[in-house]
Amino acid sequence: MSTVPPNYPYVQSPGPPSRQGPGCWVIGGVTCVVVFLAIAVTCSILVYSFMHSKTGQQAMKGINQAAGTAKYLPDADQKMREVYDAIERYKGHTGHYPTNLQQLEPDYLADPNALHSKIDADPDPSHVTFEYTVPTDSTPKDAAILQYKWVFKMTISGMTQVQTQIFKMSLDGQETKSSQVIQSQS
User: Fold this and answer.
1) Residue by residue, what is the 3-state secondary structure of 18-76?
2) pLDDT digits (tens, 9 = 90+) for 12-23
């Protein structure tokens, strides 16, 4: 058993300091809010400056053009499906595929404008939007027989970007999409 000598001074520890003022969590939280607000204001100024610059206005013009024509994509998809169904009805009725899409009118396509979509760069309603490849007996079921293209062009600060999206329908009725982007300096 150990004993403490009687003349050994016992010193009590002072304990934790008393809190005076805001705690570290409050200071840290306020600092985070201030930093977040500074970043938000800086980003807002940068976006505002970009949008009012010549480059920003060119970008917005291109984006608005794309949005203006992109709204016709569902119409083009629906018409491509209608044309595909008409091709299948034609084949079922005649025993062979049509040699061109105009052979589907008016017996297999009720809508006289079914071969033209507003997505087409040519506004003439008699212009056929869809490209058609006549299938043969040896054509694979996954080969594309119908397709249309959506071309989007945007020029910003002398750099032109042309994006082409190709929407295809195969012989078995499956739809696919592919994209191609070409950039060039003016």
Assistant:
1) CCCCCCHHHHHHHHHHHHHHHHHHHHHHHHHHHHCCHHHHHHHHHHHHHHHHHCCHHHH
2) 667 776 666 666
Q: Which amino acid is at 39?
A: I
110-128 tens-digit pLDDT: 887 888 887 777 777 777 8
Name the DSSP letter for residue 129: -
Cα 15 from Cα 108, distance rounded (Å): 93
Helix axis angle, 24-51 relative to 54-70, nearest 10°?
80
Spatial neighbors of 167 by CB under 8 A, at least 6 apart, are 73, 76, 77, 80, 147, 148, 149, 150, 175, 176, 177
Please tell me the pTM assigned to this model.
0.60
Per mean pLDDT, which range of 33-37, 56-60, 120-124 is the poorest? 56-60
User: Measured between alpha carbons, how far is 177 from 160 in angstroms, rounded to an integer?
Assistant: 23
